[in-house]
# Entry
Amino acid sequence: MRAPLAALFALGAAAIMAGLAGNAAPVSAPKFAQGDGAAVDSEVVLAVDVSYSMDPDEQHLQREGYVQALTSQDLMQALRGGPNGRIAITYFEWANVGDQKILLPWRLIDGPESAGAVAAELAAAPYRRASRTSISGGLMFGQSLFESSGYHGIRRVIDVSGDGANNNGPPVTHIRDQVLAKGTTINGLPIMLKKPNMMTLDIDNLDIYYEDCVIGGPGSFVIPIKEREKFTEAIRTKLVQEVAGREPPERIVPVAANAPRISCTIGEQMWRERWGN
# Structure
């Protein structure tokens, strides 16, 4: 039943998303229960940026990093160390505020066999790109996925990876605070492989932006990716920390100050300066 259910889930999402773009209102995920009520150590939502600023090489590195991380020995060891020995995971791509596509509906990982099946399913999914960058829309969609997971996790985590600041949809800090109020932890994987430029609306210090404007919750952390060779290692480290429910030995980026060290509307400001709206 897994394949038909996945197809139905994808079709439902596609139907709801059809025609939404630009400043369209974010939507919630379809309400298809995926789990069987099983207790898991973590429910993990992987929210992956596919905006046009992500070039095909970066997209491939990002996808391959998750595929390899899901089958790593480090992840299997972290699974075995949990009270339930299993996690639930889902993976979706996001771009503008009305564009989110589920590639991997909720799946249970409880050992090498299920991890291999999930990794193969993810590896076989087609690639795509879309306009604008709405981290806030991704967070809203990601939080709604927990409503239909069908699992009972000790922790709930949204894991956001991307290479730019929010420039579309609601202010990211407003949505971040709403998500945190529901008890969800948000972690970040800012991709910083290219030199910032106005054409792609990349920014300096994207890691600080994620630290001060995007992440939050118990044990939250940011792991920036600045070298292509470190991509897979960073994703594996992040997943292991999320599955094990522990903080990094030390913060990758300094703890946020009371006031953000970078404007949390810098993406919107840059968009207006370039396009005038």
Remarks:
- The longest helix spans residues 2-17.
